[in-house]
Amino acid sequence: MDNSIKTWLYDILNSIHEIESYFVETPKIFENYQADLRTKRAIERNIEIIGEAMNRILKENSGFEISNSRKIVDVRNRIIHGYDSVSDDVIWGIVIKNLPVLKTEVTYLLNE
To answer: What pLDDT is stored for residue 112 in this prediction?
Structure first.
């Protein structure tokens, strides 16, 4: 695997770990997330980093195998360019449903 791609995969994994760290002492409850502006912004920023890293990977290797890779980039673009229309429900769904899958895939790729 190309060293640049490996670096970007580590960036993705580190952002996922940072997002997970916000819930070590606080349970993953949607209402708590909604009420905590700092955590919301921090999670959005990490999703931006994940999306940018994925964008760089796809530019380097357009056939790179990660589920929903294009959607990951699209979410990044939505957060950055459509910040006023970012839905708490969508971001929360990504945290709960998509990030665990992405973490598994990235960990697997880094251990190959």
So the answer is: 84
Longest Cα pair distance anywhere in the chain, in angstroms?
A: 41
pLDDT of residue 23: 94
Q: Is 86 exposed, middle or buried (0-12, 13-18, 19+ CB in 10 A)?
A: middle
Query: DSSP label at 7?
Result: H
Distance of alpha carbon 16 from alpha carbon 106, whole angstroms: 10
pTM for the predicted model, two decimal places: 0.93
In the block, which residue shows the tokens 């700092």?
38
DSSP assignment of 42-69 equals HHHHHHHHHHHHHHHHHHH-TT---TTH
Distance from C-alpha of 26 to C-alpha of 21, rounded to nearest angstrom: 9
Residue 92 is encoded by which pair of tokens? 């929360």
Question: Rounded to the nearest 5 degrees, what angle is found at the Cα of 60, between the Cα atoms of 55 and 63?
Answer: 85
